[in-house]
Amino acid sequence: MPRWDDAPMVGRASELATLLACVDRAAAGRASTVLLSGDAGVGKTRLLSEVTARTVERGVRVLTGHCVDLGDVGLPYLPFVDLLRPVAADPSLAPVSVADPVLAPLFAGRPGSSPPVQPESEGRDLNRPLPHRAAPPPVDDGRLQLFEAVAALVCELAGAGPLLLVLEDVHWADRSSRDLLRYLLARLADEPVAVIASYRADDLHRRHPLRPLLAELVRLPGVERLELSPLPDADVGALVRRLGSDVGPLPESVVEDVVTRAEGNAFYAEELLAAGLHGEALPLALTDVLLSRVEQRSPAAQQVLRVAAVAGRRVRHELVAAVSGLADGDLETALAEAVHHYLLVVSDDGRYRFRHALLREAVLADLLPGERVRLHAAIAAYLARVPEAGTAAERAHHARESNDLPGAFSASLAAADAAGGVGAPAEQLQHLETALALWTAVPDAAARAGRDQAALLLETASAARTVGEPHRAVALLRSALEGLPSDAGPEVRARIHYTLAQAMVRVEDDSGGYRESAAAMALVPAQPPSKVRTWAAATHARMSYAVGRVEEAEAAADEALAAADALGLDSAWADIAVTRVRARPGADLGEVRARLDEALTRARRSGDVEVEMRVLFNFATVTFEAGRIDEALEWTRHGTARARDLGVEWSHYAAELRHLHVTTLYMAGSWDESLAEADVLARVPDMAAHVRADGLLVLVGRGDPAAQERIRWARTLIPRLGAHVLLDLVTAASEIDLAAWEGRPQQAVDVALATYRRLREEWDDDHLGVLRLAGGALAAVADAAELARRDGDPAGADRWGQAAAELVEAARSAVEIYCGTYGDTMGVEACAWQVRIEAEAARARGEVAPELWRAAVEGFGFGHVYERARSRWRLAEALLATGDRAGAAEQAAAAHEVAVRLGATPLRTALEGLARRGRLDVAGVRTVDVGAVLTPREAEVLRLLAAGRTNRQVGAELYISEKTASVHVSNILAKLGANGRTEAVAIAAQRGLLP
């Protein structure tokens, strides 16, 4: 794995600009200084190495000196000895100063040697004036000559050109070096010298000797301080992915874990990544670094840190006082020591917290097991005595860690109730699962919980569904079934069966869901009507529709609606109403809206959040499928906001609403908002990964290199999730488009057909997503077929024609399967893609077919801004081929305006190339005169290169020698800035230099 300081720098753009501005001021003749501070490992050295490299590129000499931690016995002037090594090695850099005997000990690398005290009449002229900012502070006579000599040396070096002096880790500098630094910064004024001095902010305790010097230096003109803050999470994530690139794409879970724990520290991120890849909890090297600062503190301060580490990231003063066992005076002193040495900091709420989370981890790791258990027990006892001092979650944690399992069980249930009460389902799930894990270890668990284990499993499964963990919900419900006692009543069993059916449909297991709902129906009689039977019937209707048992579904739906009305079960009525709406595609939109309106009213009246989300999702879906993009956006905005307010953002239907929202924004041409919504949260459940993958649509459309990384992420996730159709579809469509834009037609075909086959396995009836895949892949195939025909390659043209036929057949098969089940009820987008496929297939056969492309433009006119523009591009090509230049220009101009507005670089580039080749009048596109770029002979050679001719063939056709042809080819490559023949042809086509 590469080190972070070897990789290209991530982030720090503003800090780098500040330091380079310091260098620029020196190059302009004004001395400038930056005092660079930051915690250990935050990236000071990496930033300085980048500044050094860029400074050298600008022709500025750089001298670097390092301070070393030698404890109380330091070597005087050690960083300046290091700084002057290049001068000692090459005396010609400063011949006058090198001859000065005062500097001899520094040049000889003996910083401890005392410089000779000489009369002013001997050696260097001390009266030689040096520019100064302010009167330098007094130093003793023995050192004055040395200081003056060093200043003169710096001036001599700067006389040959601007100079950058870098002093690293000055928090370790000895007193003499600090005094010399003070003298230089006060003495140098108008010399072209920049100074950057770095130090560790976390090492500067209250009485550190560098503190008063820093306060003094910042009052000098031209001296500024720059604090290097922790890297933002996004930059740390980019750094971690880059560091792990040599072992392949990293799992997002690893990246997120490192980002969270590193808290912006690049060195910590590197060490944690190495530990993560090799299975270590916290690497020993990092633990040693962190604990070295703790071990320097007094025993009382260390005790305070141990208590704080066990208590949590933040801890109240009262808890530390109650648990530490220290007297009040000793406690105050110990806390002050920990705070003043930047081990603890005081939060705004008055609580103490560790300066860095990994410091707490290191302290915890250093505790003996018995000591840790005793501290947890003491904290748990304190929280039990003073409940207002902490939360139920904290009590549960400390009870569990102190092996008080009954106490941990009760506290976990209390914490789950508290989390549910404040709309935090993820935390609720966590606490419920903890309670489940403790169930068998607590003898009176049912009495403490007030319910049996099956009821707790149902509750936990409900929380899992709410946070978007359907696989976990299925596993919990199966456990509930398996764990039911033999005397469990039929209603309890039926409830678990139909709840399991509802969960199974979330993981694309319709047949399994049907079996479970049928089992629920068999357990409870229809008469008299009951809540369990009503929900069993509602669920069974939905499952029966899903597997094509329409008559069975209709009967169950009728029963469920009648029973729901009779019993006043509004949520069940709303649920079955939505099921019927979706089971009857093609129904009148007004009737559908009326039915959904009533369902929404009933769902909200019942307080059933899941059913309400289902209704909102279907409101958005029916308007989307009808091509009413603006109306669909209104529903997706409302639905996602409602889900956020209710704290169920990643439940199944809430996640699908966000997916639809991102997709609809993309279609409407609101690409910035679409990408922002796809990336609104860094952490999403795996089953909602398609929401983040939706951002690929914009990234690929814009030609953003980040698309490749996101595709790799999605591809690693798909096999682990199994049947996740939407994630598969979005990723495949984006991968196909990217391959098409990059000229990789075979990959586009392979991805499209492989995804089609998976869809046939996962979905029995609805494969219309294949239309999008086939249309994208056909674009790449048609391009390849055109190229083969142009190059005189009939075999290649036939091969691509066969690929096109296979894609068309897959699309037609998908339509036949859908229509065989649902009739002629395809949505407007599917119809548009169907026309687009026919147009691309004609292009693959070599047919111009402007009428098909005009139909594609009209098909996407419902509101798909980007695909309509792409269809206009192809229509412009077709019109140009038929000689309709005015029509071609009109279509190209309309598409170009959209491409510019969206930032769709690949489409814009293609349109501008078309405009230049066809000499079309498109605003913002300047046509190129071939004669202004290439000679007539070079233009002829380029034409033959585009036809795939070798240099020998070019020479034969133009009646010139192969060597002369080679010279022309070299000239063409140089003029176009191309690295090879293929790239030259591509650039020429883009610039309109080819017919």
UniProtKB/TrEMBL annotation:
GO BP annotations listed: regulation of DNA-templated transcription
InterPro entries xrefs: AAA_16, P-loop_NTPase, Sig_transdc_resp-reg_C-effctor, TPR-like_helical_dom_sf, Tscrpt_reg_LuxR_C, WH-like_DNA-bd_sf
Pfam family, one: GerE
Lineage top rank: taxon: Bacteria
GO CC annotation: cytoplasm
Span of domain HTH luxR-type: 927-992
SMART domains registered for this protein in UniProt: HTH_LUXR
Residue ranges of the region described as Disordered: 109-137
GO molecular function: adenylate cyclase activity; ATP binding; DNA binding
PROSITE patterns according to UniProt: HTH_LUXR_2 (PS50043)
Keywords tagged on the record: ATP-binding, Nucleotide-binding
Official protein name in the record: Regulatory protein, luxR family
Taxonomic path: Bacteria, Bacillati, Actinomycetota, Actinomycetes, Geodermatophilales
